[in-house]
Design goal:
The chain contains 11 helices and 8 strands. The chain is an alpha/beta fold. The chain is globular, with a radius of gyration of 18 Å. It binds a DNA duplex through helix 4. It comes from Marine Group III euryarchaeote CG-Epi2. GO terms for molecular function: endonuclease activity; hydrolase activity.
Length: 289
DNA sequence: CCATGTCAAGGTCAC
DNA sequence: GTGACCTTGACATGG
């Protein structure tokens, strides 16, 4: 079991998320920002080696505007060496990585332009992971998307667009059950037609389910991870007390986590802690484990 | 220099 | 039809 946190480390004094306004886009600004972000990503990797946190979600903002029409810069070649070196370090230390494009990546949208931009965004993620030279156990995690008043049709659109993407994208995609619209059962419908692996999010499951328990949900998604995909990825979090339902906790609720681990006992999965204080909570979880 | 308005992108829901 | 929310900090403008 590998554990980790998403994108940002608050302890090391830099972020691999640095960005700038589109109005100030220039080659120089782009290059200096990417350089900063990759140097910081390297530091995050070092930190994680030191603390034995070997599952890392890499920020989608590492290469700002990478998929935007404004970006004509050949970052793939310009930063090839840096990415290769980070990738080598990942491999030497037996890391697993993932990326999670944001809410604007919606491949089942009825709007063709939205779909085009979404695929372009997936291509960027795929390029990035390919340049790290990580295998297909490194996943690009997305949500199914919108419902548009007809979930069956929306699921059909998802499958159709998924099938139309290049193999390198298909091989890396994974879908996650969300907290409002697409449950584990909905994801399973998609899996049955695409074999796309499913990332189980325990907190989203608490928010939206069809009566299945955590264990039942896990047993459903476990077999969606074929041998080339690696062991299942899980997102772990819990409700932030006295906040909107669905709001992720600021800090780990260790009691909740103990219950979670009791249920997951003996299961082999890699877990990302979607908790706001990031490495701090993960280290606490690790201490417990 | 500092305060604060604003930031590429979509979808859903409350009103 | 419009605006808040997700998430969210930090960029960058203008006083």
């Amino acid at each position: 079991m590998k554990i980790g946190y998403p994108c940002v480390n608050w302890s090391i004094g830099c972020t691999s998320n640095k960005k700038f306004r589109i109005k100030s886009f220039s080659e120089e600004k782009f290059n200096s920002t990417v350089k900063n972000n990759l140097e910081c990503l390297d530091k995050i990797v070092d930190y994680n080696i030191e603390h034995n946190l070997l599952f890392l979600r890499i920020s989608s903002e590492t290469i700002p505007f990478a998929s935007h029409d404004i970006c004509k810069i050949d970052w793939q070649n310009n930063f090839k060496k840096e990415l290769e070196q980070i990738g080598k370090k990942l491999k030497q230390n037996n890391f697993r990585v993932s990326m999670h494009p944001g809410q604007f990546t919606v491949i089942n949208s009825p709007n063709e332009e939205v779909v085009r931009k979404s695929i372009s965004e997936l291509q960027y993620h795929s390029d990035f992971l390919n340049l790290l030279q990580v295998d297909n156990t490194a996943k690009i995690q997305i949500h199914v998307g919108g419902v548009y008043g007809n979930k069956d049709a929306a699921i059909e659109r998802f499958i159709k667009v998924y099938n139309s993407t290049p193999k390198e994208i298909k091989d890396r995609l994974a879908i996650e059950n969300d907290d409002k619209h697409y449950s584990v059962d909905d994801c399973m419908i998609i899996f049955n037609k695409t074999e796309i692996p499913i990332i189980l999010d325990n907190f989203h499951l608490e928010c939206l389910n069809n009566g299945e328990s955590l264990l039942e949900a896990y047993n459903l998604i476990e077999n969606t991870w074929g041998k080339d995909h690696g062991v299942p990825m899980l997102d772990y979090s819990s409700q932030q007390p006295s906040a909107r339902i669905g709001k992720h906790a600021d800090h780990i609720d260790i009691q909740h986590f103990k219950e979670f681990m009791k249920i997951m006992k003996g299961k082999d999965a890699d877990i990302i802690f979607e908790i706001k204080d990031k490495e701090r909570s993960v280290l606490e979880a690790k201490k417990y484990l």
